[in-house]
């Protein structure tokens, strides 16, 4: 049995479910969710902020702030960021593209190459179900960290273990 774990964080999802005012200590988060398992790596999935051409002043500030955040995450031990694309819709809303498929490919690749025995997933999207099922078929124990605010029942059913990220969970990993 492989006791190595990989953590897969959909930051778009996580950003929506973290209570206002709480900033996460991501190293502490990984220590908590991995428990006694060795952590191979944390894969952190997100999109860079949208910038029009030419960028508006607020877009420049948001982009610069995100670059600082990205640099902090990438400097953490065993963290890797993966970027999808942010698409602006006609109605002015934004949509992440490719993030789910990046997560799915990484999970399946690590599972079937037997680099991990445990996959810890932070998401709520049912698009991830086929990748979870493929990891389970490879013998990987899949664990979901989710919020009741936003999680698909199909995803809850697909994983081996599930843990709710509630207020006390987030308080326990709050950055000081």
Low-confidence stretches are none
Shape: globular
Give the tally of β-strands: 8
Q: CATH superfamily name?
A: 5'-nuclease
Helix proportion of residues, in percent? Answer: 25-40%
As a whole number of angstroms, the C-alpha radius of gyration is 16 Å
- In percent, how much strand structure appears in the residues? 25-35%
Kindly report the spatial arrangement of strands forming the biggest sheet. 3-2-1-6-7-8
Secondary-structure content class = alpha/beta
List the helices and strands and how they pair.
Elements: E1 4-10, H1 11-17, H2 26-34, E2 38-46, H3 57-75, E3 79-83, E4 85-88, E5 94-97, H4 99-112, E6 118-122, H5 129-137, E7 141-146, H6 153-158, E8 161-164, H7 167-172
Parallel strand pairs: 1-2, 1-6, 2-3, 6-7, 7-8
Antiparallel strand pairs: 4-5
Helix pairs in contact: 4-5
Task: Describe this structure as you would to a colleague.
With 176 residues, the chain is of the alpha/beta class. It has one domain: 5'-nuclease (Rossmann fold, 3-Layer(aba) Sandwich). The protein is 40% helix and 25% strand. It has 7 helices and 8 strands; from the N terminus they run βααβαβββαβαβαβα. The protein has helices at 11-17, 26-34, 57-75, 99-112, 129-137, 153-158, 167-172, and strands at residues 4-10, 38-46, 79-83, 85-88, 94-97, 118-122, 141-146, 161-164. The chain has a 6-stranded parallel beta sheet, with helices on both faces. Strand 2 (38-46), helix 3 (57-75) and strand 3 form a beta-alpha-beta unit. The longest helix has 19 residues, at 57-75. It is globular. The N and C termini lie far apart (36 Å). The mean pLDDT is 94.
